[in-house]
Design a protein that fits this description.
Blueprint lengths: L112 H13 L3 H8 L12 H14 L3 H14 L6 H14 L3 H8 L8 H11 L6 H10 L4 H13 L8 H10 L19 E7 L8 H6 L1 H19 L4 E7 L4 H8 L9 E3 L4 H14 L2 E4 L14 E3 L4 H15 L5 E7 L2 H17 L2 E8 L4 H8 L9 E5 L5 H12 L5 E4 L10 H6 L2 E4 L9 H14 L5 H20 L4 H6 L25 E5 L2 E4 L7
Parallel strand pairs: 1-2, 1-3, 3-4, 4-5, 6-7, 6-8, 8-9, 9-10
Antiparallel strand pairs: 10-11, 11-12
Helix pairs in contact: 1-2, 1-3, 2-3, 3-4, 4-5, 5-6, 12-21, 13-14, 15-16
C-alpha cells in the first residue's frame, strides 16, 4: 500500500532435466530452494526514518515523526546468517546421529561390479550424489572390462552434475566420448556435456557438443536448454563472436535480438544487425523492435517497495523491522545529497508487507509503471514477483539486501546491490591464486547451509579454473563438534597451500585455530569477516596469523565519506547508523547517479565500466554484464587494524 500522512514516521534450471538413457533411467529429484540470507552486521537500532506523505512533485520532507523510538534493544533482522541457536546437546560417543532418509543400499564398496552399479543407481535416485560417485567411479575405467562401464561413466557424470561438480562431470564425459565412442546412448552424453559447458560459462563448447547430437534426437530438449542458458550471456562481444561461429543458430539469434530489443543493450549502431536478424530468422518485428529510449530528465522518480508493516504497530514488529527503517533512512540521506548536487530524485514509498499479497496490490497501481527505478523488496518470494514485473515494464529493479545470484540470472532489468555468494567466492579464489603464493592447493570447508554450499562449490570451480587444486571440499555443521572433527579428519594442514572456512558459526573459528595450533601449521586462512566480531576469538589470534576476510560490508571509519554520513545521520536520528543505513545511502547515491548520467536504461553503461570507489563502501560495479556487485573487499588485520588488500583498481 502507498504510505499516507497519518502513518508514523519511520539453479538445473526449471523445466530443464537431464536425459538419462533407458538403461539407467532415473526420476530426477525435485529440488527445493531456500531464501539466501545476506551477512550484514548487526548494530544498534536507529530511530525510525521518516516516511513521505502521499506523493507530491518533490516529496523530500517527512510527513510525520514517530513519538518515540521503536526500540533500544538488539536489532533482529531476517537477513542474519548466523542466528542464535540453543547450545546443542553433545551426542554420546557411543550413539552417533542416526542417518536420515531412505536406507542405504547393502554392500557399499562391494568387489562385485554389478552390485556397485546397482548401488550407484539407487544412490543417484536417493540424491546421495557423493556416495553414488564413490560407487560408480571404479566401474568407469576402460581397462576394467565391466560390461556396463559406459553406463557407469554416464551415471557418474549425471551424479556429478546434479551435485554441481561440473569439472568432475566434464572429465568423465570426455572419457566416455573418447573411450566408448560406439556406445549407443552417446547422444545423451553430448546433451549432458552441453549443460555442463553452459554451467561453466563455455558457451561455444556447449553449442559445439549440442550440434553433435544426431538430427532428430533430443530436439526439443536441446532447444529448451539453449533458451535457458543463452540469455545468460552477459556481454555483446561474446554474442558477436558466437554469431560469427554459428550464423544459422536460431536460438542464439533470438537471444541476442531479445537482449538488444528488450534488455537495454540497443544503440543506433545495432540497428543494421538487428534488422538482419529479424529478417533472417523471421522474428516478430513488433516484439524485437526496441522501445524508444527514455530521454534524460531533470529529475527521476524512484519507487521504494519495502516491508514496513505499518498495519502492525506492536513493539515486537517495530524491533524486528528496524533494519527496514534504517535502510530507508539511508535512502533519504542519499536523496538529500543528490539534491544538493543538482541531481534530484523523488522517492515514492510503498509498504509491501511481509507477504506477496500486499506486494501484488502495489504492483497493480498504475503509477508504479511510470517509475524510472524501483528499489526492493527484501524477501525472496517478493523479489521474484517484482523481477517479472520489471522485465515486462522494462524498469530497472535493485534488490537491496539479497546475495542470491539466481534471482538475476535471466533478467536484464534486475540487479543485486550486494555481491552474490558465488561472486564472493570467485573473488576470494582469484585473490588466493594471485596473491597468496606457495603451493596452489586448498582445502575448503563450508557450513551446512545453502549459501555456504554455494560458496564452497563456486570457490572450487573458480580456483581450479585458474589452475589451482582443491584437495578436499567438505561440509561441516559447526554446532556439532563431531562434525568439525570430521571436517579436519585426515587433513595435513602443513602440506596444503591455504584453508578456506566458509562459516559464520561461533564455534568454527575457535575450533579451526585450535586445529592449526595442534598441528603447528601456519598456512593462510580465508574466511568470513564475521570472525572479527566473534567474542570467542581474540583479535590478537587473528592478527598473529595470515587470516584473510571476505568482507563485502567493510566500512573504513577514517574515510571522509563514512565520517560525513555518520555525522549527518546522528544529527537527524540521534543514534549512530547501522550497516543497513549505509547500504541505503550507497545504493541510492550510486544508482541515482547512474540515472542522471545515462538515463533509465543504463545496463550497457554499467557493463562497459569497472568497479569504482563507493561513497561509503569500498567499491561497487557491474562489469561485463554482471547483475550483482563484482567488487568484494578482502581484508586482513595488521597491528590490530583492518586493512583492505585489494582496493578498487588492484586485483
Amino acid at each position: 500500500m502507498r504510505l499516507s500522512s497519518f502513518l508514523p514516521a519511520v539453479v538445473l534450471s526449471a523445466g530443464l532435466g537431464l536425459v538419462v538413457p533407458a538403461a539407467a533411467q532415473q526420476t530426477p529429484p525435485k529440488k527445493t530452494t531456500t531464501p539466501a540470507a545476506g551477512k550484514p552486521a548487526s548494530t544498534a537500532p536507529a530511530r525510525p526514518a521518516t516516511v513521505p506523505a502521499k506523493p507530491t512533485a518533490t516529496p523530500t520532507k517527512p510527513a510525520a515523526t514517530a513519538s518515540r523510538p521503536t526500540s533500544t534493544g538488539k536489532t533482529t533482522t531476517p537477513a542474519a546468517t548466523a542466528p542464535a541457536k540453543p547450545a546443542p546437546t553433545r551426542p554420546a560417543a557411543t550413539a552417533p546421529p542416526k542417518p536420515t532418509g531412505p536406507p542405504l543400499p547393502a554392500n557399499l564398496g562391494s568387489t562385485d561390479p554389478n552390485v556397485r552399479y546397482k548401488n550407484g543407481k539407487t544412490l543417484l535416485d536417493q540424491t546421495r550424489y557423493d556416495l553414488a560417485l564413490q560407487e560408480l567411479e571404479p566401474l568407469t575405467a576402460p581397462g576394467g572390462k565391466f560390461a556396463k562401464s559406459p553406463e557407469a561413466a554416464y551415471l557418474y557424470a549425471v551424479a556429478a552434475s546434479r551435485a554441481k561438480k561440473w569439472a568432475e562431470a566434464e572429465q568423465m564425459l570426455n572419457l566416455l566420448r573418447s573411450e566408448y565412442a560406439q556406445w549407443p546412448a552417446l547422444p545423451e552424453a553430448f546433451f549432458l556435456q552441453g549443460q555442463v559447458s553452459f554451467e561453466q560459462g563455455d558457451f561455444e563448447n556447449a553449442l559445439r557438443v549440442l550440434a553433435q547430437v544426431p538430427e532428430g534426437r533430443l530436439t526439443t530438449e536441446r532447444e529448451n536448454m539453449k533458451a535457458t542458458y543463452l540469455p545468460r550471456i552477459k556481454d555483446k562481444a561474446t554474442f558477436q563472436n558466437l554469431l560469427k561461429s554459428y550464423p544459422q543458430e536460431t536460438s542464439l539469434a533470438r537471444a541476442y535480438a531479445d537482449k538488444l530489443a528488450n534488455g537495454g543493450w540497443y544503440t543506433e549502431a545495432d540497428k543494421g544487425q538487428l534488422d538482419q536478424l529479424i529478417s533472417q530468422f523471421q522474428l516478430d518485428r513488433i516484439r524485437y523492435t526496441p522501445r524508444p529510449q527514455a530521454v534524460k530528465k531533470a529529475s527521476y522518480n524512484i519507487g521504494v517497495l519495502l516491508p514496513f508493516e505499518f498495519n502492525d504497530p506492536s513493539w515486537e514488529k517495530r524491533r524486528k523491522n528496524q533494519f527496514v527503517t534504517d535502510l530507508y533512512a539511508g535512502l533519504r540521506l542519499a536523496q538529500d545529497s543528490l539534491q544538493r548536487e543538482g541531481r534530484p530524485v523523488q522517492l515514492f514509498t510503498y509498504d509491501t508487507g511481509a507477504d506477496t499479497t500486499q506486494l501484488k496490490q502495489v504492483l497493480a497501481l498504475p503509477e508504479l509503471a511510470g517509475m524510472d527505478l524501483i528499489i526492493g523488496p527484501v524477501y525472496k518470494s517478493g523479489s521474484k514477483i517484482l523481477a517479472r514485473y520489471a522485465q515486462q515494464r522494462q524498469i530497472t529493479v535493485v534488490n537491496p539486501l539479497s546475495q542470491d545470484g539466481s534471482l538475476v540470472l535471466d533478467n536484464p532489468w534486475h540487479y543485486l546491490f550486494e555481491p552474490s555468494t558465488a561472486s564472493q567466492a570467485r573473488q576470494a579464489a582469484q585473490f588466493a591464486f594471485s596473491r597468496l603464493g606457495g603451493s596452489r592447493t586448498a582445502v575448503v570447508l563450508y557450513e551446512d547451509t545453502k549459501d555456504e554450499e554455494d560458496f564452497g562449490a563456486a570457490y572450487k570451480q573458480a580456483y581450479e579454473a585458474l589452475g589451482g587444486r582443491v584437495l578436499q571440499l567438505r561440509r561441516i555443521n559447526s554446532d556439532v563438534e563431531e562434525s568439525l572433527a570430521s571436517g579436519f579428519a585426515g587433513v595435513d594442514l602443513k602440506n596444503i597451500g591455504h584453508l578456506v572456512v566458509a562459516s559464520d558459526g561461533k564455534k568454527a573459528g575457535p575450533y579451526t585455530l585450535g586445529v592449526l595450533k595442534a598441528q603447528d601449521a601456519r598456512l593462510p586462512i580465508i574466511t568470513y569477516a564475521s570472525w572479527l566480531d566473534n567474542n570467542r576469538i581474540g583479535l590478537g589470534q587473528l592478527d598473529a596469523r595470515d587470516v584473510y576476510f571476505v568482507h563485502p560490508k567493510f566500512l573504513d571509519k577514517t574515510n571522509a565519506g563514512v565520517r560525513r554520513f555518520r555525522q549527518l545521520y546522528v544529527q537527524r536520528q540521534n543514534l549512530p547508523p547501522s550497516v543497513f543505513a549505509f547500504t541505503g545511502f550507497e545504493l541510492l547515491y550510486y544508482f541515482g547517479s547512474q540515472l542522471h548520467q545515462n538515463g533509465p536504461a543504463f545496463q550497457q553503461q554499467l557493463a562497459n565500466g569497472g568497479p569504482v570507489s563507493g561513497a561509503v563502501f569500498q567499491g561497487i560495479g557491474y562489469p561485463a554484464g554482471a547483475h550483482d556487485n563484482q567488487y568484494v573487499p578482502i581484508t586482513k588485520l595488521e597491528r590490530l587494524e583492518v586493512e583492505v588488500l585489494n582496493p578498487v583498481g588492484i586485483r
